[in-house]
Structure formats: structure tokens, C-alpha cells
């Protein structure tokens, strides 16, 4: 990481050994004082309770954390020119260094796609305890299908007032002011039912 000039992208699986190594590297990076390098940590939910994410990352300047439900191999990509990968599914857990710039850049592009589909850590934590509940999912399904409030409340066997209270809570949790914005944010967070 000390050779990075622009960007470091890392997938964090929740593996204790990887988190410890990465925490040490980030602490060294901070001590060296280079604050111009952007650091992106793409974490699985398992990684959120590691000391790396809870205690080290909040003190790192230029470090952004996003959460993905997609299982990824452990990877570290430096400036799109060199990468270290440790496949999660193989019995041989040794890391492999990729010094071919084309291969490293390809991996960086794949990680960028996963990054765009991931949720900011703060949003993930704020929404995680609220919108995964079955009732909230049912409300989102009604909003998505275009039901009127009265029809949705009747289908869910709740009062119209209760249904509207659930809609208002979802809008607050998503940080939006309209139902349309709620639909857009819910799609971004993959909270909507599958289409088709």
C-alpha cells in the first residue's frame, strides 16, 4: 500500500487474518502521512464487526466503506496496476500477486461495478434494522406495484393510518421526501421485489 499513488481498492470478507493484516497496513499508511490516496473498502456484512471496520477505518482519512451482500474473493488492487487476490473457494488459500497491468485493471473494473452496487456503511447500518423486516418488505411491494394506500392497507389487513405510518417511516429511513424518491432509493439498495 505504501507504493499507492491514487487509489487502493480492497474487498474485506470478514476473515480475521485478512482484517488484521489490512488493519496493520492502514495504520502504517496513516503514519506515513499520505492523505491523497483514496481507499475503498468493499465489505461483506460479516466484516462489519471486525476491529478493522469498527476502530481503524473511522480514523483513516480518504477511506470510504461500502457493504455488499455479494461474496467476493479477497482482493487488494493498487492504482489499477498491481493486485493481490486470495480466492475464497479454493483449498489453497495462498495469495496470488498479479503484476500484469491489464489483469489488475480488469479486476479493478470488476470491483468498481461491485462498488457501485454496494451500499454506504452508514446507510447499510441505518437501514439494516428497519427495512429488512417482513412488514416493511410488504409495504415496499405495494408501493412498487402501484397500489393505492386504501387497497394496500386492505391487502395487508392494517388500517389506512397504520399503512401510511409505515410508508412515512420507510421514507424517513431512506432519507427521501417523495414516494418516487423512495422507489429509486429502494431500487438502489436492492429492497424491491424481483421484476418479471
TrEMBL record:
Q: Where is the HTH luxR-type domain?
A: 137-186
SMART domains, alphabetized: HTH_LUXR
The record ties this protein, via InterPro entries, to: Sig_transdc_resp-reg_C-effctor, Tscrpt_reg_LuxR_C, WH-like_DNA-bd_sf
| Name this protein carries in UniProt | LuxR C-terminal-related transcriptional regulator
Source organism per entry reads Actinacidiphila acidipaludis
